[in-house]
Amino acid sequence: MTRRLADVSTSARLATPGEGLGQDELALAARNHGLPLEAMRYDITPPGLHYILTHYDIPHVPDDAAWRLTVNGRVRHPLSLSPAQLRTRPAVTTRVTLECAGNGRALLTPRPVSQPWLVEAVGTAEWTGVPLRLLLDEAGVASDAVDVVFTGADHGVERGVEQDYQRSLPLDIATGDEPEVLVAYAMNGQPLPPQHGSPLRLVVPGWYGMAHVKWLRDVTVVDTPFTGFQQSVAYRIRQGPEEAGEPVTRIAPRALLIPPGFPDFMSRTRVVAPGPVRLEGRAWSGRAPVTSVEVSTDSGATWHRAELEPDHGHRWAWRRWSRMWSPVPGTHVLSARAYDEAGNAQPLEQPWNRGGFANNLVQRVPVFCTDPTSR
C-alpha cells in the first residue's frame, strides 16, 4: 500500500476536553526548551538558557567556509557571500528579546496541539551581524519588489507539505532601520551555536521568533506577496480552520516575574518566609516601548505600580522591574502586567485563537508564605 506524506503528517487540531499531553507534544517539548525563569536575572541570556524552538532538524554544517548566502530574485546584482565575507562588512550589535509566537499555548482551553509552551519561551541576547538593508542596497533591489523571502536550511514536512523553512518580510521592513534587520553571525560575542542558527540567521527586532529564520542560506526579493506555508498557512491568528486569519507579526507586551523564594519540586509553588521580599522580573513589547508595569499579590484583586528601570538605549530588549512586598503566612497568587507606549496592555482574560499565538495573558505565580510559629 502506497503511503502519502499526508499519512505521516497530521493536520492541525485542538485537544479534546480533558485530553492530557500526548507523546507527540512530549516529543516536541523534549527537543525544544524554555528559559528557566530564574535566569531572567541575567540582562543577557547565556545561549544554553535561551529558549529554543526548532521546527525540523538542526542542520549539520561541517564547514562554515563552504556555506553561501545568496541574495537574488528581483535585484540587479545578485550576491553569493561566505560567512567570512559577511564578517568583513560593517557590523552592528543589537540587544534583542526573542519570544516564540506560541508562548502560553498550553494554558489555553481548548489547547492547540503543538509545542506545549507555558510562559518560558523567551530570551534576550546580543546579536552581531550585517544590516540586511546594506546587503539589499548592494544587490540593487528592483522597483517592482514587494517582499523579501528568507530560506533556511532546515527541511521537513508539516501538515502534509514538504518544505524548507521559509518566511518573508515586506520590503519596507526588510530595508528599514527601525527596526534594523540583521543577518547575524554572532550571539553574545561568540559564533552562533548550532541550535541558534550557525553559521547565519536572521534577526528581526520586535517580531515573534518565527520571523528570525535560522541557518539562513537564501534571501530572495520577489515582486508578488509571498504565500509559502509558514507565511499563509501557519502563524495566522484565526478562530476557525476555514479563515484566512491575521498574520502574526510584532510581539505583544508581556511582564514575567522572577519566581521569588524557592520551589516545590513537582507543583513549582514558591515558598517564602514572612517579611520583606523583593519582587522583580522583566517586561518587553515589540509594538512600542514599555511604559509601566503593575504587580498584584492577591490574584489580581488589586494592582500596584512597580519601579521600571530605564532601557539604557536597548529599545528591543526587556526591561527590569521591581517592587517590595511583605507577605503574611498563607497562600498568595502573584501577577505582573505590562503596558506599552501605544496603549497595549496584557489582558486579564486571554482571547483564544486556533494556533495558540500571541498569548500574553498575565502570569499567575502561586506562593506559599510559611508560618514560623507552626513548625
TrEMBL record:
Residues 274-367 form the Moybdenum cofactor oxidoreductase dimerisation domain. GO terms for molecular function: heme binding; molybdenum ion binding; molybdopterin cofactor binding; sulfite oxidase activity. Residues 56-229 form the Oxidoreductase molybdopterin-binding domain. One of its GO terms (biological process) is sulfur compound metabolic process. Gene3D superfamilies: 2.60.40.650, Oxidoreductase, molybdopterin-binding domain. InterPro entries: Ig_E-set, MoCF_OxRdtse_dimer, Mopterin_OxRdtase_euk, OxRdtase_Mopterin-bd_dom, OxRdtase_Mopterin-bd_sf. This is Sulfite oxidase.
